[in-house]
Amino acid sequence: MFSLERWQEIFETIRKNKLRTFLTGLSVASGIFILVILLALGQGMQNGIAKEFERDATNRISVWSGVTSVEYKGLNPGRFVEMTNADYNYLIEKYEDNLEFKSAVYRIWSGNLTYGKETGSYRVEGVYPDYQFLENESMVNGRYINYSDHDDKTKVVVIGNKVKQDLFGKQDALGKLIQVNGINFYVVGVYSDPGGEREETRVFVPISTAQRVFGGSDKVRNLGFTLKPKANFEATLAQSINFSNEIESFLKERHLVAPDDTSAININNTLEEAKRFYDLIGMIKLFFWVVGIFTIIAGVVGVSNIMLIIVKERTKEIGIRKALGAEPWSIVSMILHESIFVTAIAGFSGLLFSMTLLELIGPNLQMDYIRNPTVNFNVAITTVFILILAGALAGFVPAWRAARIKPIAALREE
């Protein structure tokens, strides 16, 4: 039941102890502010990691070869392992039922592209049609390479959006004839990539064409795969790890590489990497929660201490109230009202300040691995209400102590 006199008492007490009340409220507001900011940073880190994995398919398995580092079966270390079309064909035939997307890659690091008077050096890659999905690319104009291009060894090229801007400017690139290392190719598509301009400075041609016209024979530089997802993440991850291990064993056996050689066959499993990152983010978020909660607890303890001091200062007043017939619950209510009021105002102030700061700065914060730090508003508001409940509990102990004071003892208090 609303009591104007009760609120007048509360405001009078706060007015008489402005500095003490301000410092108590500041500790509570700081706790909520720190917790919200820490939770937002944790979400920002998760957003940043997710953005990094957007560049390629999130369940991609990439394979590339290197130089042997261990002597094996009479072969000296230092051999460069060259994968071939036969390696790729064997793997896709063996695991056909489990594969979602697949492609081998024949790469030319420095390809000179010329259109009219414009020229530039870009990475040229011979790929299969599925490579578009392995790279998470979207078509801006035209089409991607198809299997007819591969089978017929046609001289067609798909260029990145950055390449299109460099060579064609505002012109339409489709159907135009460009030269790749002096050989004519027709532009059939322009793509964009979530990785930005760095990923859009590449051009793609059918792998059969690249191997034929650029002297690649049957060699490939990379292999890329994604597997069909299972019913849940753990099963999908287990399948992905098992597939990676089987690829490594097969290639090492086929190319006479020692089982313990860690440099000749390299495999990157983005799903496994993602799990490591998200497990780390989960631990960081948990740490942030612990730090924030203990900061709030420190503020609530401060409220409790202040309420104890208030009870001590008002002991004589409480004794008079009880001598005049005041019920114990009215004494408890008087102390609790002030505790809850200070906690609520401080909690909502800390929440408002932190949310405003995130709204102003968050969308513009684009650091490495931290993007648009935000916090779920429902989580934040729930935290404040829990804080208010904690403030009530913090005030209850001093309030109950005040309610149990005997009037005669209180009246003797100086």
Automatic annotation (TrEMBL):
It is found in: Cell membrane. The keyword Cell division does not apply. The keyword Signal does not apply. InterPro entries: ABC3_permease_C, MacB_PCD, Macrolide_Exporter_MacB. It is a multi-pass membrane protein. It comes from the Bacteria. The chain crosses the membrane at residues 21-41, 286-311, 331-355, 375-397. It comes from Leeuwenhoekiella nanhaiensis. Its main location: membrane. It holds the Pfam family FtsX. This is ABC transporter ATP-binding protein. Residues 21-239 form the MacB-like periplasmic core domain. Keywords: ATP-binding, Cell membrane, Membrane, Nucleotide-binding, Transmembrane, Transmembrane helix. One of its GO terms (cellular component) is plasma membrane. Residues 290-407 form the ABC3 transporter permease C-terminal domain. One of its GO terms (molecular function) is ATP binding. Belongs to the ABC-4 integral membrane protein family.
